[in-house]
Recover the amino acids of this structure.
């Protein structure tokens, strides 16, 4: 939050040293209420080795309506609690999303995260995961379909299954912001509705 940053240079120095010491490439995310902050300070971010990415406005959606997707049950969908190597070999790596592997592994170690995989026979083709806060707010983190299995309706089926899981388990404070119009259309079909729009901003560190 910009109102908690007395001086951006020193904050970026601290973040960079803290994470690179652990061989982690840091990403800094702009708070929704700080729209325009990253772009206004892009020169400072660049000076410290960060590239700024801004997109939007994006629709912030909450789950308030009925699910209108009728699943054709192409996928075998499982809620998993342990790492499955097929997440990496079948989904993340073929889709050039290898950076998500550690995120998913860490999610599986957290009791407040739920990870769902969709299988075709023994092959993992779809994954989504979400976080449940202490206030029972459910944030959908990511929906990923393996590169060679897209445009077959698997995203619709997986999101439909997971939102029904939320309803059945009284997790009704669900929200997300879709990455593109296709995702937004699917979210609308399963019952998400627009609450407000906001800019998304990220600064990614690039080692020299």
């Amino acid at each position: 939050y910009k109102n908690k940053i007395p001086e951006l240079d020193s904050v970026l120095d601290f973040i960079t040293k803290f994470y690179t010491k652990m061989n982690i490439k840091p990403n800094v995310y702009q708070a929704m209420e700080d729209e325009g902050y990253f772009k206004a300070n892009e020169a400072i971010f660049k000076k410290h080795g960060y590239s700024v990415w801004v997109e939007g406005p994006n629709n912030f959606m909450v789950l308030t309506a009925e699910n209108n997707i009728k699943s054709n049950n192409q996928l075998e969908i499982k809620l998993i609690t342990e790492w499955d190597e097929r997440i990496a070999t079948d989904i993340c790596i073929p889709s050039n999303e290898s950076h998500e592997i550690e995120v998913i592994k860490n999610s599986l170690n957290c009791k407040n995260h739920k990870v769902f995989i969709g299988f075709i026979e023994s092959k993992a083709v779809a994954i989504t995961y979400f976080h449940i806060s202490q206030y029972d707010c459910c944030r959908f983190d990511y929906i990923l379909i393996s590169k060679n299995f897209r445009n077959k309706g698997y995203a619709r089926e997986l999101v439909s299954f997971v939102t029904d899981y939320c309803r059945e388990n009284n997790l009704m404070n669900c929200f997300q912001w879709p990455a593109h119009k296709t995702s937004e259309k699917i979210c609308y079909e399963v019952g998400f509705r627009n609450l407000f729009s906001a800019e998304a901003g990220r600064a990614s560190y690039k080692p020299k």
